Amino acid sequence: MNDKRLDTSELPHVVIDEIKNISRIAGYLWTREWAERNAGNISVNFTKYFHGYKIANIDEVPCTLPKEMGGMVLLVTGTGCYLRSLIDKIEEAACILKINSEATAYSIIWGGRQKGFKPTSELISHVKIHYENTQNGSGYRAVVHTHPSELIVLSHHPIFKDEKKTNLSLWKMCPEVRVFVPKGVSCTPYALSGSEELADLTIEGLKTRDVVLWEKHGAVATGENVEKAFDFLDVANKGAKLLLMAWAANFEPVGLTHDELKGLEIFL
């Protein structure tokens, strides 16, 4: 057995900084009540920071992944782990793993110190999204899946079945939603959590939208870093919250007019 994982001090400085940022954003998710118990997961693609980096031979865990993902290095949260643990126990609740060149196994090179630790059950979704991001040159390296309350409620509403109407309704609630979630929300039909079907639906949604809203479950966003991904979710959820508040007050909001929305395009 060879399980000599890196200490935090041995990681590249930029990786250490990003780990601190992940802890901070996890605090936001927890205080907003978007991360009940073990809900949600986070991953960041660190591959470019480990090119040529010396890593001792560490035991591999068999795991069949698409072969294109060989050599990828990711920080991922653990299955069953609480996102709130990322605030002050991130080495227990997350790990950095390296996928072998054949994509037949991975090695945990940092973290994963919690007893019985395993990477998120939605690892396949995260890996596929990261691969798509590398292929399309978006520069997005972070993926955040969480449970934004108002967006989830909206996914139970009949409007969810009409993606165009859903996005227009969200954009009309305030200028920031149109400006900072310019591609809108993908209304993705229900699929089993952790399934390859859900992974593929999510990737398709992210090709054209900023946020993928999983029906009756939660939402996913990807961005340059964890904070940018969080911002997409935060602003989209604000639009949903305002819309639900108007409906709860028993009126249909007037919202921004067509011309007012058009005027915001200078910021896009």
Describe the fold and architecture:
This protein is of the alpha+beta class and 268 residues long. The chain has 2 domains: 137 residues, Class II aldolase/adducin N-terminal domain (L-fuculose-1-phosphate Aldolase, 3-Layer(aba) Sandwich), CATH 3.40.225; 120 residues, L-fuculose-1-phosphate Aldolase (3-Layer(aba) Sandwich). It has a 9-stranded mixed beta sheet with strand order 2-5-4-3-1-6-9-8-7, sandwiched between helices. Helix 7 links the parallel strand 7 and strand 8.
Looking at CATH, the homologous superfamily of the largest domain is Class II aldolase/adducin N-terminal domain
Radius of gyration: 19 Å
Q: Number of DSSP strands? A: 9
**Order of secondary-structure elements:** HEEEHEEHEHHHEHEEHH
Short description:
The chain has helices at residues 13-31, 90-93, 123-136, 149-155, 163-171, 175-180, 196-208, 226-248, 258-263; strands at residues 41-45, 61-62, 73-77, 94-99, 105-111, 142-146, 185-188, 211-214, 218-223. It has 268 residues and is of the alpha+beta class. The longest helix is centred in the C-terminal third of the chain and has 23 residues, at 226-248.
Keywords:
single chain; alpha+beta; L-fuculose-1-phosphate Aldolase; nine-stranded mixed sheet; 9 helices; 9 strands
Task: Set down the secondary structure blueprint.
Layout: H1 13-31, E1 41-45, E2 61-62, E3 73-77, H2 90-93, E4 94-99, E5 105-111, H3 123-136, E6 142-146, H4 149-155, H5 163-171, H6 175-180, E7 185-188, H7 196-208, E8 211-214, E9 218-223, H8 226-248, H9 258-263
Parallel strand pairs: 7-8
Antiparallel strand pairs: 1-3, 1-6, 2-5, 3-4, 4-5, 6-9, 8-9
